[in-house]
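Dear colleague,

Following up on Tuesday's group meeting, I ran the structure prediction for the two-component complex that the binding team flagged. I've pasted the input sequences exactly as they went in, so you can double-check that nothing got truncated or mislabelled along the way. The structure tokens for the whole assembly follow below. Feel free to forward this to whoever is handling the docking comparison.

Inputs:
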Amino acid sequence: MVLLTRKIEFSASHRYHNPDFSAEENRRVFGKCNNPHGHGHNYTLEVTVAGEPDPVTGMVLDLKDLKELLEREVMQRMDHRHLNYEVPEFAGQIPTCENIARVIWKLLDPKIKQGKLHRVRLYESPDLYAECYRDGTPGATV
Amino acid sequence: MTQVEEIYGAVKVELGRRYRFAASHRLHTPQLSEEENQRVFGKCNNPYGHGHNYVLEVRVSGPVDPATGMIANLADLDAFVEREVLEPFDHKSLNEDVAAFRHTVPTTENLCKEVYRRLSAFPYAKLERVRIEETSNNSFEYPENPTECEGNLA
């Protein structure tokens, strides 16, 4: 099995706010991430696909296909958008790093036909990331 | 904000966070002769020690709270790491100032295990792994497989 990773970057804004909480509770739990008009990040997304290289092409999957998939599913949906207001996948959930990574996993997993989606790692900043993998995958590595 | 949970049943999420601290150490063990220490540890055995800018990466896992979208509140994680690791280690001599290294060589392998031991009590998420970069060229991780080391660090 070979792991193949493609990286893309996108910029988006978000706000952490739970309408079920009081204003004070939102402030206490989310701190400055609750500021009313939101804020933004440059996100770095690493998508890793696992598979055996095709004996003819030597590829796990065609990188061009993966690039187009990421463009269609992630860039067009999230780049330069306000995640709370413009991306319907975040209706009813807060666009934290964890949830954005899970939404991306959910968008990509059924659409990767060659190889299998192995890992989604989303950096909100160089010092913070969330990572998704299939439950039961042993020892997701750093 | 609970209806979204079930669709993620098969996906595990972890959170990774990086921290930095600077500390000095000297690799030396009384179990070896002076010559052997010098041979084994090289310049890391120089008598007055030397320092590194360490980068610590902490990985935690757990269910994503539907009310907050979080595995753990970063403010809680940051405060815990600050109290357990950064405050006692930053700008300190690992050999002299950290009790665990009075009789254990403060290699970064051992540092990983000590940091893991200290952080494994984090109450709001499961500690999966720590990774420490001693320099940008050398990094160490512990444990290799988190399920194997539970109970090993009592």
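The helical segments of chain A are 23-30, 63-78, 83-86, 97-108.

Cheers,
M.
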